[in-house]
Amino acid sequence: MNQWDIFTWDDHPAVILSHPERVASKPAVNILSCSTQRAGRPPGPGEVLLDRADGLDWETLCRCDLIYAVEKADLRQRRGSVAPERRRQIVRAIIQAFGWNAI
């Protein structure tokens, strides 16, 4: 289990955000939840589109405006890893969604 890996959580794809040290040593990690349905629209503010390049079966919206803390034991089935360009998009979406770009 690593930062940027995608696992299944609560029947949804979930992107692990936590620092690698936390992932390695703590029972809980921070994640972003993604839609289980095919993306039928372009991503809105606070969303990033993930797809097969990231290990998913189809285009999926990743919600970057809400960060969850979950037990690693609740994460099942590794699905893939977020591609480097989309990692940057996710970080930018989080910064914008939380208003940190105004600081």
Provide an overview of this structure.
With 103 residues, the protein is of the alpha+beta class. The protein is 19% helix and 38% strand. It contains two helices and six strands; from the N terminus they run ββαββββα. Strands 4-5-3-2-1-6 form a six-stranded antiparallel beta sheet. The longest helix has 14 residues, at 84-97.
List key phrases describing it:
single chain; 103 residues; alpha+beta; SH3 type barrels
Largest sheet: 6 strands, antiparallel
What name is given to the CATH topology? SH3 type barrels
Shape: globular
Total DSSP E strands: 6
Classification by helices and strands? alpha+beta
Number of helices: 2
**How far is the first residue's CA from the last residue's CA?**
33 Å
Number of domains: 1
Radius of gyration: 13 Å
Q: Helical amount among residues, as a percent range?
A: 10-25%
Which second-level CATH architecture applies? Roll
Low-pLDDT ranges: none
Mean pLDDT: 96
N-to-C SSE series?
EEHEEEEH
Strand content: 35-45%
Quick structural gist:
The chain has helices spanning 20-25, 84-97; strands spanning 5-9, 12-16, 28-34, 47-50, 60-71, 76-81.
